[in-house]
Amino acid sequence: MFPHHREREQPIFSARAHVFQIDPSTKRNWIPASKHAVTVSFFYDANRNVYRIISVGGTKAIINCTVTPSMTFTKTSQKFGQWADSRANTVYGLGFATEQQLHQFSDKFKEVKDAARLSREKSQDKELVNTALTIAAPQFSQDLADELQSPPVMCVNGPEDKLFRSQSADITLSSEKERIKKMLSEGSICEMNLEAELFTLQDSNSKLVAALHEANTNVEQWKKQLAAYQEETERLREQVAELEAHGGQGPSDLLKDELTQSLEELEALLKAKDEEIHILQSKKAEYHEMEHARDEAIHRLRETEMRNSELERRIQNTEQNLSNSLEDRDRVDTEIQRAIEILDIKIFDLNDLRQSLVKLIDK
Questions:
Q1: Binning pLDDT at 50, 70 and 90, where does residue 2 land?
Q2: Helix 157-246 vs helix 251-362: angle between axes, to the nearest 10 degrees?
Q3: Which residues contact 203 (CB under 8 A, 6 or more apart)?
Q4: Which residue has the higher pLDDT, 4 or 13?
Q5: Residues 312-349: pLDDT tens digits?
Q6: Alpha-carbon span 220 to 279, nearest angstrom
Q7: What share of the chain is helix, strand, coil (3-state, %, to 5)?
Q8: CA R_g for the chain
Q9: Beta strands 38-45 and 9-22: pairing type?
Q10: DSSP 8-state code for residue 153
Q11: Who contacts 27 (Cβ-Cβ below 8 Å, separation ≥6)?
Q12: Of 192, 184, 155, nearest to 32 (Cα)?
């Protein structure tokens, strides 16, 4: 089935990225779907007029997502973005090597989503026109029937004030709980962003380590070559000095010119090697900067985890306080109901007493 679709689908855009999927159990942590960067491509099926995002790692399809108008690609950092696939019940995340690649993928995602929306609207226009009149009349009748059958609103002076106070307490506690949950979700998003940045830094770190090892090997070789060139230069200088001391002519002048030219070539080569050594030393400094940035990212990730733990503890305390408040409210409601019943009995007794006094006066 998959190869058959690939035969009639045409690729329209491709990019290299590290693919992640959200952890289905926690809905907060990212799980790498590929060990290395893979190709993520947009495909268009002209027969079905459908756009899909496909990425294959080895023989396994890592991403097989049909683009719908309701999807949104969100940039969560300079090199990381994500979108949700409701059909697969998951969230995909992509980590790019550069910020420019992220912008290109985001622009293409928006373009494909708009194209899918236009295609859907075009296919539904005719159906909407044909069914508009059929839907309008039954809907109007149903609305009228619902209005006629709606029950009247009743109001009792006594319990209304108590109900209002209970609803106010529920609204206050619910708003506090929602606020803390929002803070926790924001902390989780920040943690995911830091994990993605840490993964990118680790990948760059491994590349820089390999380049540094290779550069160190080349530096040792160039140092040996440089020492050999310096010895050859000193030997040629001595030969030139001997020739100048003898003051020879004819073939000696020609030999002197050749030695001078060789000496200039060796000096130019030495200068080029010095520049290469300087470039490698600057790369080594960049490697140390990357290590420092990685350590800072790990530190920020740990701080975020500590903040999330604190927020979870606060939510547990708030839930406990909410439970205690609900129990207190139920107890107060019970006492109020008991007091109301006692007052009702007293009022009934007073009413009987009043009627008895009226009867006595009439006699």
A1: very low
A2: 170
A3: 18
A4: 13
A5: 889 989 889 998 989 999 999 999 988 998 998 989 88
A6: 15
A7: 70, 15, 15
A8: 40
A9: antiparallel
A10: P
A11: none
A12: 192
User: Which residue, among 53, 50, 70, has the nearest Cα to 62 in the 3D structure?
Assistant: 53
d(CA 268, CA 223): 16
Residue 80 DSSP one-character state: E
CA 93 to chain CA centroid, nearest Å? 6
Assess contact for 11 and 41: CB atoms under 8 A.
Answer: yes
Q: How many angstroms separate the CA atoms of 304 and 309, rounded?
A: 9
In this structure, are residues 116 and 69 in contact, taking their beta carbons and an 8 Å threshold?
Answer: yes
Rounded CA separation 41/317 (Å): 47
Direct distance between the N- and C-terminal alpha carbons of the chain, in angstroms, rounded to an integer: 102
- Give residue 169's identity as a one-letter amino acid code: A
DSSP letters spanning 293-346: HHHHHHHHHHHHHHHHHHHHHHHHHHHHHHHHHHHHHHHHHHHHHHHHHHHHHH
- 68 within 8 A of 78, measured Cβ to Cβ: no
The two structure tokens encoding residue 226: 């440089």
Return the number of other C-beta atoms located less than 10 Å from residue 276's C-beta: 13
When pLDDT is averaged across residues 30-59 and rounded to a whole number, the result is 90
